[in-house]
């Protein structure tokens, strides 16, 4: 396809405009499996970052993991908030249960530290807004960890839409599902099923991926939303086991999505325009394959060797080190939080 933009410039970090000097020292707050298995190895392989402080509710766990990875400082959550480790880091990565993100962001901002916060930003839009306003007032960088936005194939697909390869976008379809009891934990009392800690289950944890990736690809924001929730398992009382939702975007595109915490794995996003279709499948669980169909033919891009977490952290560090604004910033994440709350209200789900 002669008219299709090359993928190679995206695999060469199209976002890197100025080579930064130095590195960003990170405190990792929350040592769950994702941090242990994905984030720490990513930082060890990254170009502009290093983990210098580990923070956990379990002091023994923090000490053990710090020793395994040669990290110089390990403190408890209380020790972090008391300022015990303030001199050991430049930025904080927050991966605690959702409703606990805000206090660690506030402490970091109050001490001039930058913030990379996992999604969703918090359990409520009001608390997410507090985080944004706190970081803005302190003059520190706040970025939300939407790792798909740094996947080269996803960035390439966004360029297809921007350059009109698909014509005018018309509709998007997406889905992300898993069995939480197999993929995460068999415990029916895990925090992801506690509405006060999680702020929701299927939508807040999974449906957010196709929603935000659609916003990124379209460069558009939601205007109207509808949603329906289905709960069958007793463990999901107060949260959403499965959800189907629609979104109308401000560019005229419409989206239809599903997410479930109690199903077989699904992972796809399809964008159809007036002149073609692109299918991202798989999409959300660490690998992305894209298939483009237009009048010129079909082109398939298989998953590359890029690591979304390395790209995400190096992007963040490059912006901090060169004093350049980040995207996705806190206000971008806040828009998702507000949309999630609108969807839950439409579905009749009261999360308090």
TrEMBL record:
Residues 155-279 form the GFO/IDH/MocA-like oxidoreductase domain. It holds the Pfam family GFO_IDH_MocA. One of its GO terms (molecular function) is oxidoreductase activity. Residues 24-146 form the Gfo/Idh/MocA-like oxidoreductase N-terminal domain. It comes from the Archaea. Keywords: Oxidoreductase. NCBIfam families: XylDh_Gfo6_Halo (NF041392). Belongs to the Gfo/Idh/MocA family. This is Xylose dehydrogenase (NAD/NADP). It comes from Halorubrum kocurii JCM 14978.
